[in-house]
Specification:
The protein is mainly alpha-helical. It contains 32 helices and 4 strands. The model is unreliable at about 1-40 and about 590-605 (pLDDT under 50).
Length: about 600
């Protein structure tokens, strides 16, 4: 300090009982020296307090207002910054202050609070300040200056019970509206669940919500409380308020990107939110016409009787007016009608399909062998394990779905059923390898299913036929490209699903050799490969064995191994050997199926 100032204010003797402050000063001084600053630049707190301990000391700010620069040492010591020194924040002050005429710069809180300062910079306050609005709220305006305390302290201006008062210093109208609202009254009753300013507008990155999208307002703001099971149960509020809004016209329009669709605040208000029983409420019968008329000019009282949360009223059994009661009964009647009528139609259609399917099975023309017994057993195990894997797998992925309910509430049941089906599928895969290696029919099966160059030509010619560029489809041998795609897709899928499934199941041993992210990648592959497999079965396999013209209502080869001569000649006319064998009289001792011995070929059996 300058000698003139020293004559005016006598430096007090060093105080005892402040070893902690002295140690902090020493540490900070040493750190500044390491950083290239001179130790003399760190002004001791005692020097600062020579002047700033005077309660009457003031200064004139840039707007000509007289403001106090008094620092209560006891309050500062008890604050969140009590272990800091004056120089920790005011590091631009020199020993010549105030005679040097240098105006101290604004405190940069980002020095210690970088993340919070970054969020503040993107807030409405920070953006306004950056645009030159000197009246925009800063850190000091909300947190205080030398008396900063933790928000959990009752003395903090950011304590939830005082937050409206703090924000109200700059936003008095909004604070008055909140105080009169259901939220403000709950706050006055000491209910911590009542939303405060920062619960809606966020803390440091404070956001203006008047231009926010309807979807964001409902999902991220209002849903914090109104979609909370705990809060809805505690305060006896309807449980599906947010969900029922999105089921309404307004919510559906908002989800589709309509920026003009009404949102929660359009009807309920922003700050002065009141219950419908309050005569001043925007949703009370006294104001409904006016509220609806903001978006629907010419709205009448009859129009305003419509329900926005209609599905909520119906599902909750509300008797709020004759309209809701009538609507609920109409809904119940129609649900019953849909169940009965569509159920009877479904039963009728199933019986019709079953009759046709059984008639096709009894056809006397089904004499051409397609699958032998061993192959049919393998196919049955494959389809059974695949279906169980698909059902339990998606039930595990979506535990809230109806699929999960099929297997009960215990996740362990779904998990072990899934693993059991997986083990069965892998065991079948190993058996099939032995089958194709050590049996003549298995070796012939692989030979006939091996991809060949002519498959691409058949695919091209069949595509020309399907789009009307060729007069007739190509002829196929025992297996065309359609069956080959199915077979090798099953081989590929079994390997991929088996390896990734075992990695997920045995994650602990796996992570002894591989990083944990390898299991995460396996989980992703397992899930999307399952989707690919299921869609392929439905779109490709089910079409060719059930829905294709000439095959419908079903290809019964999976049951007894036989198909009709007419179908086989049309689909696999190049397989003259199988057709010729089917024309010969049946020999009881001769095995059926495409793997039967060729005449004179001793190596095929």
């Amino acid at each position: 300090m300058s000698s003139d100032l020293t004559m005016v204010r006598r430096r007090p003797a060093p105080r005892s009982g402040r070893p902690r402050r002295s140690r902090v000063v020493a540490v900070l001084t040493a750190l500044m020296m390491v950083g290239g600053l001179r130790a003399a630049d760190a002004i001791p707190d005692e020097d600062c307090l020579l002047c700033h301990s005077d309660p009457d000391m003031t200064k004139t700010d840039a707007d000509g207002n007289e403001v106090s620069v008094f620092v209560d040492e006891a309050i500062f010591a008890a604050s969140a910054h009590g272990t800091n020194t004056c120089f920790s924040c005011h590091d631009d002050i020199t020993s010549d202050h105030p005679d040097d005429g240098v105006i101290p710069k604004r405190i940069d809180c980002a020095t210690c609070h970088e993340d919070q300062s970054e969020s503040y910079g993107a807030s409405v306050h920070g953006l306004a300040l950056a645009a030159g609005d000197t009246a925009a709220a800063t850190c000091v305006d909300c947190h205080g200056d030398h008396n900063v305390t933790h928000p959990t302290s009752l003395e903090s201006p950011l304590h939830w019970s005082r937050l409206a008062e703090t924000c109200g210093e700059c936003h008095p109208d909004a604070a008055d509206d909140v105080a009169a609202s259901v939220h403000g009254m709950a706050m006055q009753d000491g209910r911590r669940e009542a939303p405060t300013c920062t619960d809606c507008h966020a803390e440091h990155r404070i956001e203006a919500l008047n231009a926010v999208s309807s979807v964001k307002l409902a999902e991220q703001i209002c849903a914090k409380c109104h979609a909370s099971e705990r809060i809805n149960t505690k305060f006896k509020m309807p449980a599906r308020q947010v969900e029922s809004f999105f089921d309404s016209y307004h919510g559906l329009a908002a989800r589709m990107g309509d920026t003009h669709a009404a949102n929660c605040a359009s009807c309920h208000g922003y700050h002065k939110i009141l219950p419908s029983t309050d005569p001043d409420s925007s949703i009370s019968p006294n104001h409904l016409v006016e509220t609806c008329g903001q978006c629907h000019p010419g709205a009448t009282e009859n129009f305003a009787l419509g329900r926005v949360h209609l599905d909520l009223d119906l599902s909750s059994g509300s008797s709020d007016g004759i309209g809701t009661t009538v609507n609920r009964w109409v809904r119940a009647i129609y649900l019953a009608m849909i169940f009965v009528v569509v159920g009877m139609m479904t039963l009728h259609s199933f019986l019709s399909w079953l009759h046709r399917a059984l008639a096709a099975k009894r056809s006397s023309d089904r004499v051409v062998p397609r699958m032998d017994q061993t192959q049919r057993v393998q196919h049955f195990i494959l389809l059974s394990s695949f279906i169980l894997l698909a059902l339990t797998g998606f039930a595990l992925k979506f535990p809230d779905s109806w699929l999960a309910l099929m297997f009960g509430a215990d996740e362990a049941i779904r998990r072990w059923l899934h693993r059991f089906a997986g083990v069965v599928l892998l065991a079948l895969g190993f058996y099939h390898i032995l089958y194709v290696l050590f049996t003549a029919r298995g070796r012939r099966l692989v030979r006939d299913l091996a991809p060949a160059r002519h498959d691409l030509g058949q695919l091209a010619r069949n595509t020309q036929y399907l789009v009307g560029r060729a007069p007739k489809p190509p002829k196929f041998a025992r297996f065309g490209y359609i069956e080959k795609v199915e077979y090798w897709a099953v081989v590929w899928g079994t390997i991929i699903m088996g390896v990734t499934g075992l990695m997920i199941w045995l994650k602990m041993p796996v992570t002894q050799w591989l990083p944990r992210w390898a299991v995460d990648v396996a989980t992703t592959v397992h899930y999307y490969e399952a989707i690919l497999a299921c869609l392929s079965i439905v779109v490709w396999h089910f079409y060719h064995v059930i829905l294709a013209p000439g095959t419908y209502p079903m290809n019964w080869a999976w049951w007894d191994g036989k198909v009709t001569r007419e179908w086989y000649e049309e689909e696999h006319g190049l397989d003259t050997e199988t057709l010729a064998a089917a024309s010969e009289p049946a020999a009881p001792a001769k095995p059926e199926g495409p793997g039967a011995r060729k005449p004179g070929d001793e190596s095929s059996g």
